[in-house]
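Predict the 3D structure for this chain.
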Amino acid sequence: MRNLTSKTIGGGVAAAILAGTLALGGASSASAGVTGCSAPGGKQEAGAVIGAVLGGVIGNKVGGRHATGETVAGAALGAAAGSAVGCEAQKSRAKNAGTYTHNGYRLQGDVSSASYSRIGQTFVAESGVNLRAAPTTNSGRVGRLQAGQRFQALAQVRGSDWVLVGQNGVGVGYVRGDFVRPAGSRYAAY
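Done. Predicted structure below.
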């Protein structure tokens, strides 16, 4: 009996792996989202493979003696669930990659920290202007605002006219206050 049990378990695992491969191949060729995460990385694919194998094993165990359909269904559901979890992990990692926190502000890795006074409102660029890595014209250029472009003004650098420009709550550079104004205001305020 012991020999039969190990063959059944081994066969179930082999069937689960085969079903997982089939589920992944079919889902990706049908563009079902198993490999279409918007963030870079391989966590989605790894999650799909792990989910497919585990789902296939569970489906095989639930299915009993003739468990092929249940194995394939379990693998497909496991691949989808693992894919979703992996994609969320990729998005989280991409969102936090290259950032750090200073005095309650999240900053891009190439942006220097400073002492801030919170602004927290939408501003608009009066003209095309460079974003700087630090609140000085001698610092490196990290981006550019176009004339009329709206942006998040996270804070003003204390003791200066520099504004911390934000994107999705992350400080991505500094712009001089005389090139920007609060949205809805006719003249520059800083």
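Residues 60 and 71 are 5 Å apart (CA to CA).
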